[in-house]
Every structure is written in C-alpha cells, then in structure tokens.
Amino acid sequence: MAFSDLFSRRRKDEPDADTGAAKAPVHSTKVLAKFIVGLTGRPSPVLLDLGTVTGSNVTFFGERLGCKIIVEDLSTDIDRAVRERTLAELPAHFTKRFSQEDASVDGVLCWDLFDYLDKPAASAVASQIVRILKPGGVVLAFFNTHEPKEPVPAVYTKHVVVDQTTLQYRSYPAARGKQKPFQNRDIQRMFEPLRVAEQFLLQSHMREMLLRKPDHAAPADI
To answer: What is the bridge-based pairing of β-strands 105-111 and 46-49?
Structure first.
C-alpha cells in the first residue's frame, strides 16, 4: 500500500501503539546509515517496506529522502498461512504477491522478515525483490545467526527508527517463530545477482546486510 493509504488501512491489531514503547529495548545499527546514503541523491526514490506499518518510520524516511513509501507487511501473509495450514503454498503465493513493475523500486527494507521463512519461501521473496529493484538500488536485511537450544516465544519485532544509528525493538505476537538461520552463502545465492555491499555481525547474533543491485553496464565505445 502506498503512503496515502498507510493510516486508513491499518489492521485492528496494528502494533504501532505506544503502549509499553518506553520499555522496549534500543539497539545500535551499522547498516541503516549506509542504506540511507545509498538512496540519497536518487530522484524521487521509491521505498518498499516489508515490515508492519510504523508511522514514525514513514516520517523519518519521508523527511530524509523525500521518497514515496510502499508498505507490504508480509507478516500478515505468514500468519494467514499458519492459520490456514498453507505454509507449503507460500513460495507460489510470494511469486505473485508483488504488483510492482520490474525495476521500479529504489530501496527495500526487509528487516528480519527472512528469519520467519523457510528456504523455498525466502527464495521466492528474494527473487521478487531482485525483479522490482532498480539498478543501483539497495536492500537492507537482518538475519539471525543463532539457533537457540530451548524454545523461544513466537514474536515479531517492529523495528522503530530512533535515528540512523539506533533502532527500538518492539515485540508483538507471531503465529510462527523464527526458522533455522540461513548460512551466508545461501543468502548470497538467494539474492543473485545482487552483491553484498556491507555486512556486519553484531554481538546480538544478528547479521546486518546491505545488498546492492549492479548498475547497467556502460555501453561499449563505438
């Protein structure tokens, strides 16, 4: 949904309320600033956010980049598949999920979406991101690298931008917990031909990545 639809189409259970927000943990981020730099200077950039609607994030990116923001909350697709017991159909669903035209988006915020997908579904989403991303466009994605030995609560994390180096993590219920972490080589293969422009492994066992789509090759001299 586009920027103008953000607040008129919010889900009833939209977790953007400030209840408990003051107690939510704050974490540093090394890749967000580089994501912003990657979009700075692009004329009227289009930003696709695959997380839940977050009003303060819309304001932050709108003011910093003067961009059009499209929100496609894929957590709702995952939850629906869990309820309807159609998880095996998610790869095919994601193949048709994105209505954006080829090479029409400048930047994509994946946050930690891929942690909740198995490899076939993740590959389907990654392929669509590659398709709709413009040459030179950038993707921000977080990947968990630690598989806990004990069961943990099934929750999503809303990533609220405090500033370009700080994020607040707000948890809300999920129908499915995080899946087995992806290896670095698997991530790179999923996103080919995108290239890893920046990568940081944090003490929290989170891998922050900035991926970039190569520019068109320059025409040969005549």
So the answer is: parallel
Backbone region of residue 41 per phi and psi (left: phi > 0; alpha: psi in -120 to 50; beta: other values) = left
Distance CA 187, CA 41 (A): 28
Q: Is 121 exposed, middle or buried (0-12, 13-18, 19+ CB in 10 A)?
A: buried
The CATH-assigned architecture of domain 3-7+20-212 is: 3-Layer(aba) Sandwich (3.40)
For 47, the token pair is 């930003």
Q: Where are the domains of the chain?
A: 3-7+20-212
Burial class (CB in 10 A: 0-12, 13-18, 19+), 12: exposed
The per-residue pLDDT for range 142-184, each reduced to its tens digit, is 999 988 777 788 999 999 999 999 999 999 999 999 999 999 9
- Encode burial over 157-171: b for 16+ CB neighbours within 10 A, e otherwise: bbbbbeeeeebbebe
* pTM of the predicted structure, to 2 decimals: 0.87
Which tokens in the block code for residue 107? 């930047």
Which of 135, 7, 141 shows the shortest CA–CA distance to 69?
Answer: 7
